[in-house]
Amino acid sequence: MVYGKDMKTYRSRVIDSELDELAELPALAIEGPKGTGKTETARRRAVTLVRLDEPEQQEIAAADPKRVLVGDGPVLLDEWQRVPSLWDTVRRAVDDGVPPGPFLLTGSAAPGDDSDGPQRHSGAARIDIVRMRPMTLIERVDMSPTVSLRDLFDESETMIAGEATFCLEDYTEEITRSGFPGIRVYEGRALRARLDGYVSRIIDRDFEDELGKTVRRPEALRRWMAAYAAATATTTTLEKIRDAATSGQGTPAKTTVLSYRDALTRLFILDPVEGWTPSNSHLKRLTQTPKHHLTDPALAVSLLGLTKEKLLKGRGGTELIPRDGVFLGDLFESLVTQAVRVFAQSIEARVFHMRTRNGEHEIDLIVEDASGEVVAFEVKLSGTVDNRDCRHLNWLHSQIGDRLKERVVVTTGSRAYRRPDGICVVPFALLGP
Question: Which domain CATH number covers 78?
Answer without folding.
Answer: 3.40.50
